[in-house]
Amino acid sequence: MLGYKPSPESARLVRTIVACWAALLLVAYFWPGQRVVERMELYLIDWRFGVRGPEQPDPRLVIVAVDEPSINARGRWPWPRNEMAQLIRKLQAIGAERVIFDVFFTEADESTHGAAQDAELVKATRAFGEVHHAGFTYDPKPGEQLRPLSPEAVARAWDTLAIDRPTGLEAASEVFQPRGLVMPLPELASAARSVGVMNVLDSGDGVFRHILPVLEYQGHVFPSLALAVACDVMGVAPQEVRVRPGAAVALGDKAGIPLDVDGRMMVNFAGGRNTYPRLSAAEVLAAQAGSAVGAKLAGRIVLVGVTAPGLEDLRPSPFDAVYNGVETQANALDTMLNSKGLRRLAPVYTALFIVLAGAVFAVLLVRTSTPVLCVSALAGASGYVACGVYLFIYSRLIIDLLLPAIGLAGFFVIVLLVRLLGEERRRRQAQETLAVFIPQPLVDRLVTDEAIDTMRGERRVITVLFADLRGFTSASEGVPPEATVELLNRYFTFMHDVIWANEGTLDKYIGDEIMAFFNAPVLQPDHARRAVRTALEMQREIQRRHDEWAFLGMPELAAGIGISTGLAVIGYVGSAARMQYTAIGHHVNLASRLQALSKELGQRILISAATYAELGDEFEIRAQGMFDIRGVGEKVGLYSVLGPKGHPEYLTRPSIF
Predict the structure, then answer these.
(1) Torsion of CA 63, 68, 74, 77, to 10 degrees
(2) By three-state DSSP, how is residue 88 classified?
(3) Of 105, 194, 273, 582, which one is least surrounded by beta carbons within 10 A?
């Protein structure tokens, strides 16, 4: 295929544009304090989690949840600490290997029997010998006095852990240093197998993907509880752990945990909610020796957390908008135990790729034909993204996708713009040449004939649908205007999606009323059936979102729908300043009348006889009789639609008309 041969001036211009585009990408990539690009990259990481899908979780990990049945059976939360002590003894008796509490015991119980209950929890922890307790970091309020660390907590610090302080280009990397730290009760810290922090961190976009494997506070080094448990399971002593900020935490020669420049580890989530086996705390407390519950916990690492509604430690994760904190801790421990840490490629390599891609395109842009170059750009962008997905799934390596892909797409756009501008120039020259031989109006029609035909309008049989919210105007008077607007916007969004899914034409919104029609501008032989399907799906969508309407102050939101089929005029109608593609005619008015009549007849969906004749045997229909309709000279046969054939109960909520 022959290459593209621009003039030397055009070639220089193209290379300059490509160079400027690459430079702009690099500035955006390294601009201090920018968050938009990073947030988009984090979103693309979540997308890769979705592409990968769930992985097999570590079978040793089991969650014991203080869930709603537990609260109902054992009383309101927080439970007395002797209850938690009983849970520890029960887990010890049925053979659990270790117990990790995603529950904080950092304050003494000051109730009447609190001291005795604290002592019982300490006693059970010490007797088992394999119980791990948690602390947490916090940001003190201005003027707030920091809570001092107890000698017992300091004694559990990992001050023998080795930290390789970074130098040179890595000097910006660091071990995280919180402003405040709270550890378990002193006696509990002494009795526990290990203690550590259990903070899960917002990655910067509202999704919690990171934890702190190690941190420094007041001259001491403390591990995360996940790291402490992982080392305990692997038999790695604190003095065998080596931290290289910005690179990794080495657990002796057993495993490595990748770190970012802020000292964080990205959790490699195995899946969404309930990926790990979960048992109710009430079940465990009631279990007998040799029971099925005991068999599920024997030899397992048990994480205890609270999941009851209203008490849950909920945060968004890559898999779910609502994810429980104890499940995040299970994923973090799984990541460490099985060396599943996610490594992120250094930014310098991404910048190098952008520069090299720009250089390649600058050369190819003036030597390759447009089809080949466009295919190359699209193949490069898609190939790069596919490579990023492959590396994430099979090598647990994260490469930045956004700016490199945008860069390749941008080079593609540059190709199109430069060459399409040239084509536009040549088209204008051709029109000027044609004008020498034929009148200018004929030249213009060569380009605008299709638009003129559409503007002219035509008569066509269509099916028109009107939907109106019942009693909305009066009901909205008692609702704040912000909620009214939000509800209408949500309602119109869902109805719009239903109409478009059935390939209808959304004509207009009239207050809280919607008008749509079918069989124009595109011919649809089954336009009547499409309209009725749309009406049923609209009603079903309103019912399905009952809880949302209730939240917005309209618990009984309902709509009446009228449908009519017949001849109408369609086309662009309006002024020179504003025009709209719409339908006009008798059957448009009839559909509007049927929508209003649906309320009087207590029906959700009312159709005309002409529409009924087009439907075949797809729907459950009930005849309503012949009616005089205002504006119509003769009686009209009306029918109500109940649902798809064989499902007359399709619209499950009772009528409220």
Answers:
(1) 90
(2) helix
(3) 273
Mapped onto helix, strand or coil, the DSSP state of residue 394 is helix
Which of 137, 140, 143 lies closest to 176 in space, CA to CA?
Answer: 137
**How far is Cα 355 from Cα 360, in angstroms, rounded to an integer?**
9
Percent of the chain with pLDDT over 70: 83
Whole-angstrom Cα distance, residue 302 to residue 87? Answer: 11
What is the C-alpha separation between 656 and 641, in angstroms, rounded?
Answer: 16
- 529, containing H or E segment: helix 527-544
Q: Any idea which residue has 């899908």 for tokens? A: 53
Please state, in angstroms and rounded to a whole number, the distance separating the CA atoms of residues 384 and 408: 9
- Rounded Cα distance, 593 and 563, in Å: 9
User: Residue 303: what are its φ and ψ, rounded to 5°?
Assistant: -105, 125
CA nearest neighbour of 245 among 215, 224, 272: 215
Q: What number of other Cβ atoms are within 10 A of residue 182's Cβ?
A: 18
Question: How far apart (Å, rounded) are the C-alpha atoms in residues 562 and 540?
Answer: 16
The SS3 call for residue 31 is: coil
Q: Which of 565, 645, 70, 585 is nearest to 311 (CA)?
A: 70
CA angle 393/399/404 to nearest 5° reads 130
Residue 564, helix vs strand vs coil: strand
Of 563, 553, 536, which Cα lies nearest the Cα of 651?
A: 536
Distance of CA 260 to the CA centre of its chain: 24
Name the 3-class secondary structure at 523: coil
Secondary structure string (H, E, C) spanning 592-628: HHHHHHHHHHCCCEEEEHHHHHCCCCCEEEEEEEEEC
Both tokens of 370, joined, read 């447009």
Find the range with the poorest average confidence among 101-110, 456-465, 543-552, 592-601.
543-552
pLDDT per residue over 381-432, tens digit each?
788 889 989 999 999 999 888 778 777 777 677 766 766 666 666 666 556 6
Instruction: Identify the pLDDT of residue 415.
Output: 66
Q: Is the model's pLDDT at 1 over the cut of 60?
A: no
Which is it for the CA torsion 379, 382, 386, 387, positive or negative? Answer: positive
d(CA 231, CA 76): 35
Among the residues of 104-174, which ranges form H helices? 114-128, 151-155
3-state secondary structure of 57: coil
Residue with tokens 């720009």: 358
Q: What is the rounded CA–CA span in Å between residue 189 and residue 285?
A: 24
CA-to-CA separations, 378 to 16, 51, 100, 501, in angstroms, rounded: 21, 20, 50, 29
Q: CB-hemisphere CA count at 13 Å for 419?
A: 18
User: 547 vs 398, 465, 498, 653, CA distance in Å?
Assistant: 39, 26, 19, 13
- The 3-state DSSP composition of the chain as helix, strand, coil percent (nearest 5) reads 45, 20, 35
CB 190 within 8 A of CB 253: no
User: Is 410 exposed, middle or buried (CB count within 10 Å of its CB: 0-12, 13-18, 19+)?
Assistant: buried
Q: Give the span between the Cα atoms of 70 and 89, in whole angstroms.
A: 17
Q: Cα(526)–Cα(409) distance, rounded to whole angstroms?
A: 40
Residues 289 and 16: beta-carbon distance below 8 Å? no
Cβ atoms < 10 Å from Cβ of 610: 19
For 74, the token pair is 């054992």
Q: How many CB atoms lie within 10 A of CB 254?
A: 17
| Alpha carbons 448 and 565: distance in angstroms, whole number | 32
Q: What is the pLDDT of residue 657?
A: 40
Residues 378 and 412: beta-carbon distance below 8 Å: yes
Q: How far apart are CA 456 and CA 571, in angstroms?
A: 7
State the number of CA atoms in the 13 A half-sphere of 213 facing the CB.
37
Omega before 521 within 30 of 0, i.e. cis: yes
